[in-house]
Write the structure tokens for this entry.
Amino acid sequence: MKILLVEDEPKVAAFLYKGLSEQTHTVDVAMDGLQGLHQASEGQYDLIILDQMLPGLNGLDVCRRIRAENTRVPILMLTALGETDDKIRGLDAGADDYLVKPFAFQELLARIRALTRRGHEGPAAEAVLRLADLTLDPTRKMVTRAGHLIQLTAREFALLHFLLRNQGRVVSRVDILEQVWETSFDTGSNVIDVYINFLRKKIDKDFTPKLIHTLVGMGYVLKED
């Protein structure tokens, strides 16, 4: 894969560059937010690893600006801020996942695999999924509602894909963690709820009928009212 690493700490950048290169990835490094934004806009990357605390332009603003131009590239945000609210701000900015410093390199690799796996599963076309006037084309990575194109991040797309494949069935937060995130993190956080709200704003807020339903204490179900 071709990876953009935006990291201003020289030792961390050198460590990640060496480790990722040894995994046969091509790695470009940007040492500040403005440089990272420029490289993200000019280059074609399979993944962006983005520090949150950056000189020039902080990682949250970099992430928002990347997302304004590119809704598909997976973004993994690195942060020294471990509180749930800090992580949620990163997700709100458009990141698909986060990793708190200090971190284990093997966990970083696992998260990279989870974020990029669906983009490298092979050329076989998958059937278009439909519910009411909502459609999801897994091959073209396209979502529409009532004929309107819906822009989703990589993680939002994966979550909606999972819900559509299980439409009419109640799925728990644990189900979503195991099948969508494919890696473990603090199950006491409200990250799943945040992403469900992201989807509601994009595919339910301005449309009827509402399709995403919460069953308190049980999970979520995608179905027509």
